[in-house]
Amino acid sequence: MKILLRNLTKRFPDRNKKTQGEITAVNDLTLEIPDGKLVGLLGPSGCGKSTTLNLICGLEKATEGTIFFGDRDVTALEPEHRGVGMVFQNYALYPHLTVRQNIQFPLENLKGKDKLTKEELKRRVDEAAKLVQIDELMERRPGELSGGQQQRVAIARALVKMPHVLLLDEPLSNLDARLRLQTREEIRRIQRETKITTIFVTHDQEEAMSICDLIAVMKDGILQQLGKPQDVYDFPSNLFVAKFLGTPPINVFHGFVKDQTLFIGKNAVLATPGVSDQEVTAGIRPEGLIYRPDGPLSCHMNRIEVMGRDTSITASHPDCENPVIRAITNTDKLPDPGTTTVSFSLKPGKVHLFQAETGERIPFSTNHEVNSYE
Ligand code: ATP
Fold it and tell me: Is-contact 348 285, C-beta < 8 A?
């Protein structure tokens, strides 16, 4: 089922005088979610992710705008008639009911033509339990399950009604790191098998990038960018998106472009064909700083950091807003730990330019590497 949000706005009353009595949680959001895809809704705390989900499932009413499921306008439809399955961060299972009773709960009150026979009810519950691989645990109560198992029960309960749309609100937040990894792969598998259009809310960019077909990045209730995870990483539409995606984070330098060349401080560091003279903010991914003794960008050397697979050179520079610059390197040739200065050349595809005032992306052709301007 395709979902279309058109100019969706949600304002809440607020007692705080500074906001003039209103909080705009979702601001003129237009977003098309293709049929059968897993879409990650991503952004910092308070950016409007949960409110967007609540509008889609009908728990909140839109102040302005429309919501379509396929060709059907569902904006005024009650939640129970929207065909949406919802999974929350805290699982919200009934502690006194068994796993089987929890999963079958949404089917028990179906009326009229939707009412199920006993056999049909059992078949649907068994199918949902099998899909999330908890069919061995049906007679236990939630208190006797691990966090990951409880979350599976919550997903099974959302799937048992065979929804057109599945909404997951921070479903992995209560799990430890290892279980998070495992459960996110499970969510991907379940979504692939059921092909239900799914929206997955998280503030964890790595989680969203690893399992989603598309990610939508939000800030202050406003959509910043929608795209395939790798495209959004490679072509962030503004500085906020560039900073939000990527670990370690992008290194942000203040510089200027003169004669189609990027300068950081006095150093000419990269050819920027087609970019007019102006002040810019340059974002350089940690994998875009290449250690080279004759490289054009000189920084103050901090130390070599080895973390699992990655070896990073950490440094600092007066024009960099990150207190610590990180360069991930895959070479054995490393600077001498005792040295005070370290130089880098820049990988053009890993450097992004943004307007200094607005933070909007400045496109430029990235096929001219400049090693040195000595
Ligand atoms: P988090 O990641 O912390 O859950 P979020 O991105 O899901 O955040 P929302 O919960 O959608 O953000 O909240 C968006 C904004 O709307 C916040 O400023 C929040 O305080 C405000 N808000 C949400 N619900 C209400 C409400 N019922 N009344 C007033 N303000 C609200």
Answer: no
